[in-house]
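Incident log, structure service

09:12 report received: a user says their structure output differs between two submissions of the same chain.
09:20 pulled the input from the user's history:
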Amino acid sequence: MINALKLWNFTAGVLPPEELMAHAFVLKTCQRTIVLTLQDKIIKSPTLSHQLYVGQDSYLFLLETICGLKSKLVGENEIVGQFKDAYKDYLSRADRDNKLLIVLEKLFKDAKDIRTQYLIGISQKTYASLTRRHLLSRVHADHIVVLGSGQLAEDLINQFKKKTKVSICARNLTRVSELCRLHQIESIDWEHRDQLHQYAFIANTIGSQSVLWDESFFEAWASNHSKKLFVDLGSPSVIQTPMTYIDGIIRLDDIFNEGAVVEGQKQTQIALARAAMLSISERRKDLFEKKLNKLAPLPTPHLTSGVRYL
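09:34 re-ran on a clean worker, output below:
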């Protein structure tokens, strides 16, 4: 049965949610969208550019992804929170595949074991900590506006709140209220987001195909502040401006490049971790064969427009 496991790896922003068929597990990160299933087909348009992994290779690919070894910031741990959120979402879905849940549960355990045994100290520089270094150490921001309300936004709030004033601006009002109450911070009305040029220091975590802040916004922002910084961690990016690092705009690629260098000792740790993952995936193959064969097969897949996109 493990030979039926398939993983589609798409570049971030390539796969529209309406393309998905039922039963698939979806993990969306700033670099990729991963779709995992035991079905033969998960998308309506097979011409969408992707990589396909099958059987043991699909398990190994997802395990390496969760452990941060597929990230440009090698060993980063934001992916763990993203995987947990995707798992909770999948668990709540009526069309979930119980056989696939077994695979996901084992991935949780195996990823934790690999990180504990091999990857401690591999990457202390995560997206949130690198952003913190720029906003608090480089420019000493006295008030930071965080855009978005997901896990990365909360990670940023945790990095900032003990050192400076923090406000949040996002579309999800329920989540914004929750974060404000939990972290004792203030909120800015999402409907007034076009007025955010009043704030000199902004960290964005929102990713979308739409442009939310265009060149006119950044012209106003630049003219309002001599000392300023806008860190854009969204993927796809929601900003549109020719301004660069020199002008106070730090994009996701700048963060990637900053964390790209991995010392020789860490490379050795990573090699050991990869070898351990390969061994784990081989052992899991036999386990899944026994467990999955005991479960009843799924009904014939059907198209759905209700798949929740992560």
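09:41 both user submissions now match this output. Likely a transient worker issue. Closing.
09:42 reviewer note: The longest strand covers residues 6-11. The beta strands are 6-11, 25-28, 32-37, 51-54, 143-147, 165-169, 186-187, 201-204, 229-232, 249-250.
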